[in-house]
Amino acid sequence: MSRALPVLTVILAIILVWYVAAVGLNAAWVRDQAARAGEVLDARQLVERSLSQERPVLPAPHQVAKGLWDGVAGQKITSKRSLVWHGWITLSATLAGFAIGALAGVLLAVGIVHSRVMDLSVMPWAIASQTVPILAIAPMVIVVFASMGVTGLMPKAMISAWLSFFPVLVGMVKGLRTPDAMQMDLMRSWNASPAQVFWRLRLPSALPYLFASLKVAVAAALVGTIVGELPAGATAGLGARLLSGSYYGQTIQIWAALFAAAALAAALVAVIGAIEKATLQRMGLAR
């Protein structure tokens, strides 16, 4: 209870501020409609109508919660109006991109740690790759893959991998370099081979860094997938829900899709956290 109280306090404060902001942003339209109809509204009517618009500038929390509930539980999961169906489309591309990005990040990190040439040549390019806005890269990736006849999951997965490989690369390079000179000398005194040094010293030392970077990478992969769904004009996925909501001014649909994406990211991070806890406990590295 002592841990939950501060969290609940912050949530209640956010909801209160959200309601105040919703009334402030939506009231102008209500006043305009009342003036056209020759009505005079009191404060209670102004608040009620501001919080019950079909297409508000800022939906109230209860409107977003209803939109989220309708999208998750109010539709068949096979329906194209279901957030579960759209979430699965986004999740499948996210997992594919995350797997590609994580594998690339680990392999590059191993190469950089063991090769001075790769350290000097690859690392600067890896850093430079993240300075290019993903919104500029995404359309080019979609066009290039489409010209080769590849559409659907793979272009989105590659954009997702582009964002997710870098946190893994940085985390693994830091982790693999964690063993100090004394530990390395000790392994040499035991005549350990480079493979034994890697598997028995470097890799266990890098695991805490790897899992921390994987949590960042999976969230970045989800963002990359959603960004990849926007220029493709996709009709499926949470990005498509955001896009269609913006086309038709359905702000409640946009916010419901945003919360669905946030819940999906939280679930993915929680899964990696559970795997981290089990792995580190099994290896005796848990703190």
UniProtKB/TrEMBL annotation:
<keyword id="KW-0472">Membrane</keyword>
<keyword id="KW-1133">Transmembrane helix</keyword>
<protein>
    <submittedName>
        <fullName>ABC transporter permease</fullName>
    </submittedName>
</protein>
<feature type="transmembrane region" description="Helical">
    <location>
        <begin position="88"/>
        <end position="113"/>
    </location>
</feature>
<comment type="similarity">
    <text>Belongs to the binding-protein-dependent transport system permease family.</text>
</comment>
<keyword id="KW-0813">Transport</keyword>
<dbReference type="Pfam" id="PF00528">
    <property type="entry name" value="BPD_transp_1"/>
</dbReference>
<feature type="transmembrane region" description="Helical">
    <location>
        <begin position="209"/>
        <end position="232"/>
    </location>
</feature>
<feature type="transmembrane region" description="Helical">
    <location>
        <begin position="125"/>
        <end position="145"/>
    </location>
</feature>
<feature type="transmembrane region" description="Helical">
    <location>
        <begin position="157"/>
        <end position="176"/>
    </location>
</feature>
<feature type="domain" description="ABC transmembrane type-1">
    <location>
        <begin position="87"/>
        <end position="276"/>
    </location>
</feature>
<feature type="transmembrane region" description="Helical">
    <location>
        <begin position="252"/>
        <end position="275"/>
    </location>
</feature>
<dbReference type="InterPro" id="IPR000515">
    <property type="entry name" value="MetI-like"/>
</dbReference>
<keyword id="KW-0812">Transmembrane</keyword>
<dbReference type="InterPro" id="IPR035906">
    <property type="entry name" value="MetI-like_sf"/>
</dbReference>
<keyword id="KW-1003">Cell membrane</keyword>
